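The material for today's practical consists of a large collection of protein records. There is nothing in a record beyond a sequence line and a structure line. As an example, a complete record with its sequence and its structure tokens follows:
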Amino acid sequence: MEVGKQFSDKALQDFRLIDSAVDGQDQQAYADLMQRYKKPVYHMILKMVRNVDDAEDLTIEAFAKAFKNLHKFKKDFTFSTWLFRIATNNTIDFIRKKRLDTMSLDTSFKDDNGDSVTIDVADRNLNPQEEAIKSQKIELVRLFVTKLPAKYQRLVKLRYFDELSYDEIAKELEAPLGTVKAQLHRARELMYDLVKSKKDHI
């Protein structure tokens, strides 16, 4: 696709990676995109939710949603703008659900071109599009869970579907809290791998 707007070298490199990922089904291109933006997306989400575990979960979800819809990406804006907006909207959805009072609505973030990525919170109720996104997210996570080793599946279900806290999971499984945290961390790493190789799983 021809790119008419003036973009940074990094943005143009992102476009090439997207072409390779979408047109060539290049798994390395997905991995490279994640590598470039995993940390900034995570830190942005962490600022919003102020919880390391939730930030890690939401980062996975953001990439999963972005990669699933990568074929719909238009080169009118940078990939980082598009990705950060997905991550922001997904996190706002999470905050609404959890009713967290932790985010300043004046907070904004800069993409690679220095453009502000604003946060729009107009209504506390989910609109039809948000409902669809929420359903899609649940479906996506359920799909990933079936790909995990059996020993992680119950943990992930308790955490993401039953929405138990780490302490509650530890009591449910009669396992040390540290073990629960370590195994959920490993499960998240496996889910990252599944997201990166999404064409075989989505």
Observations:
- Residues 101-106 have pLDDT under 50 and may be disordered.
- The longest strand covers residues 109-110.
